[in-house]
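Tutorial, part two.
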Amino acid sequence: MTTFAHHMAFIGGGNMASAIIGGLIRQGMKPDQFTVVEPFADTAAKLLNDFGITALPAAGPALAQADLVVWAVKPQIFSEAAAPVMPHTRAALHLSVAAGIRTDSICRWVASDRVVRCMPNTPALVGQGITGLFACHSVTVADKALVEQVIGTTGQFIWVHKESQLDAVTALSGSGPAYVFYFLEAMTEAGVGMGLSADQAYQLAMATFSGASSLAAASTESPEVLRQRVTSKGGTTYAALTAMEAAGIKPAFVKAMQAAEQRARELGDEFGKA
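Running the prediction step on this input gives:
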């Protein structure tokens, strides 16, 4: 059994909280080591059914036993959610998964400088996530080790040295699964248009993404070299890539991620004022 915090609190019990809780329980934590604040009855019922955790409808003194508080709330309600929690959790380490909300705002709202901000992505739900992490100066080496243990149950992680880099993480990997699904949609649609069934096209597209990612992970070569290895001049792949280049796919894709990065910065400005 892995040693985690003696007790953990989650403010919000939705998908990301459930991914982390599920990973921790698989590693040996018990349901009674969690306090979850979740006002929505359906979500609370799912926590009870999946993990045996009875969620609280509102913050209360039970939160004071938490060594680590995980903030799994929507960015627009963070400050409102923090107000009733803060009096009970000043001594805890705080880990935020709220997109865009910067640590200066979080520290103010939770009345603590022991704050780690992270940007996970939805493959964490199946243990295949990648999370960017940034720690305030008051976060200790032991605090970071605890965060790594917790986030490690959902997949991989990286630490960034500048908080602004989390906006790039948001644009690249936080929003990234949607880009993959977008291309899966397009490949499936194209396959159907060329005579395959929707199921056949989707299976081929999904296996291709999964297999190519595994091949890249197993290789020491750059994606450019890997691409060149399957692109013979005058062949089918060359025809497809030439069409993509003519359509400006790569610069459009880069521009799209820059738009996501900009929106991440705007979220911090917009919701961090309270």
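The longest strand covers residues 129-135. In part three we will examine how such features are distributed along the chain.
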